[in-house]
Specification:
disordered N terminus, single chain, 11 helices, Alkaline Phosphatase, subunit A, four-stranded antiparallel beta sheet, about 475 residues, about 30% helix, alpha/beta, 19 strands
């Protein structure tokens, strides 16, 4: 007991030191915010919700068979993104969201799902940026950017954190893969919780934590990050409400998945209701997206049981490909932003990327820089508000896995993509959004041009 108390006190002290250093480096390295305390009063609360493995075709506003009323209302009343890119797997997308940089800029440990520390200490993050503005910062859910307590959210700008440090977990016992040293990482502020929270579903635990945060921080500006474990496998839904509302689906596997989607949607509805009841809905910017495309097939037996084998249970239709691939289905995901006080309902057709959120929020919150940040994203707020219909031709660079199993680049309407050691394919996404016709041999000059651009981006990576 004494050792545990000493360790807890030591880790709390180390955490405070690292967070202080993180904030100090952010301010010194990138400049100060002007009139921080006064400006905070006019800034919104920011709630970022990230689904796990939710496919393009797995939400009601893309597919009428799916039961997602909360998300449907957000998309209808907010700004929906027709082409929101992420990375093709969980850890890389989280890196890109929190840093505004492509995950490959940090090395191979950030390029695929990993239990290692994904980004260096002192790296400016959304959370550390919010702290410099006086925001309270917190998160609940799946971290997966380092599965040891000393690599957790509290070391990257979050005042409080709750959930799993590792990746997907058993939804009722909250353990990661049992054959790894990271099987038990459910925690609150670095302190591991071994009791598995009385067997409560992870979706409900995360919703409860988010609602508690909203209520406790009423009257101050806050940033809260909700990376759900849902709807990643394993899929287990004991509450009949979610399966009953999806009985119209013929496939047993699809029905189970849809139940998990509806469960998550209900949890999001609880957060929105809490915002409304606390009088915070108008003052809160809500951003939602999925961390990658749908998995589609699952072999089962990977996570704590029950972990059933599933086939064709999720969908990226009409796009080609799936999670862990760089065809559009692997990383073009449902997404929207909602802030009723400032944003009118509309749809953004221009392609955007998860790396855009760091520079966009920095601009929205009035951050001033003494030096240009090393971001790969850009400020897309003028697109969101409708001030601009386009920000011009953009280049998007993608690479996945430590050995670069998949590589791709989009510039304007053209895209090149390949699996490792295979020939580059070329597609015109304006004419062929579903990547059915490879034009590499028909247009070798365009292919060669894009390869050169890809190599220029590749040269910016450390390895």
């Amino acid at each position: 007991m004494i050792k545990q108390q000493v360790y807890a006190e030591r880790t709390r002290w180390e955490n405070r030191c690292i967070v202080a250093l993180d904030v100090l480096m952010f301010v010194i390295g990138f400049g100060c915010f002007a009139q921080q305390a006064a400006a905070t009063a006019q800034f919104p609360n920011i709630l970022i919700i990230v689904a796990d493995d939710l496919g393009w075709n797995d939400v009601g506003f893309h597919n009428s068979e799916m039961r997602t009323p909360s998300l449907d209302r957000l998309a209808q009343r907010g700004v929906e993104f027709d082409c929101h890119y992420v990375q093709p797997e969980c850890t890389p997308t989280r890196v890109a969201l929190l840093t505004g940089r492509y995950p490959s800029r940090f090395g191979s440990q950030a390029m695929n799902a990993s239990n290692q520390r994904a980004i260096p200490y002192g790296t400016p993050t959304l959370a550390s940026m919010m702290k410099t503005l006086g925001y309270a910062t917190g998160m609940a859910g799946k971290w997966h950017l380092g599965s040891k307590p000393e690599w957790g959210p509290n070391h990257y700008g979050f005042d409080s954190s709750y959930g799993s440090l590792a990746g997907a977990v058993g939804v009722y016992d909250h353990r990661y893969r049992l054959n790894t040293p990271f099987s038990v990482t459910w925690h609150r502020d670095e302190q591991i919780i071994n009791g598995f929270e009385n067997g409560t579903h992870t979706t409900d635990l995360i919703a409860q934590e988010a609602v508690r945060w909203i209520r406790q921080h009423n009257g101050e500006r806050w940033f809260f990050y909700v990376p759900f474990h849902a709807v990643h496998t394993p899929l287990v839904e004991k509450d009949p409400r979610w399966s009953d509302m999806n009985q119209h689906l013929r496939s047993t596997d699809r029905r189970l998945y849809a139940a998990a989607v509806s469960h998550m949607d209900s949890a999001i509805g609880q957060m929105l209701q809490a915002l409304k009841s606390q009088g915070q809905l108008e003052e809160t910017l809500v951003l939602f997206f999925s961390d990658n495309g749908a998995q589609v097939y699952h072999r089962g037996g990977v996570y704590p049981p029950p972990d059933p084998k599933l086939s064709k249970f999720s969908s990226n239709a009409p796009f080609r490909g799936s999670k862990a691939q760089l065809y559009e289905g692997g990383y073009r995901v449902p997404a929207m932003i909602h802030w009723p006080k400032e944003l009118e309902a509309r749809k953004v057709e221009e392609p955007v990327h998860v790396v855009d959120w760091m520079p966009t929020f920095a601009s929205l919150l009035g951050q001033q820089f003494s030096e240009r940040p090393e971001w790969d994203g850009r400020n897309i707020w003028p697109l969101i508000t409708g001030e601009l219909e386009t920000v011009g031709e953009r280049t998007f660079y993608f690479t996945w896995r430590h050995d670069r199993k998949w590589e791709a680049l989009r510039q304007g309407d053209w895209k090149i993509v390949r699996r490792k050691d295979e020939e580059w394919e070329l597609y015109n996404l304006q004419q062929d959004p579903y990547e059915e016709v490879d034009l590499a041999k028909k247009h070798p000059q365009i292919t060669d041009k894009l390869i050169k651009v890809f190599e220029q981006e590749r040269a910016k990576d450390p390895d």
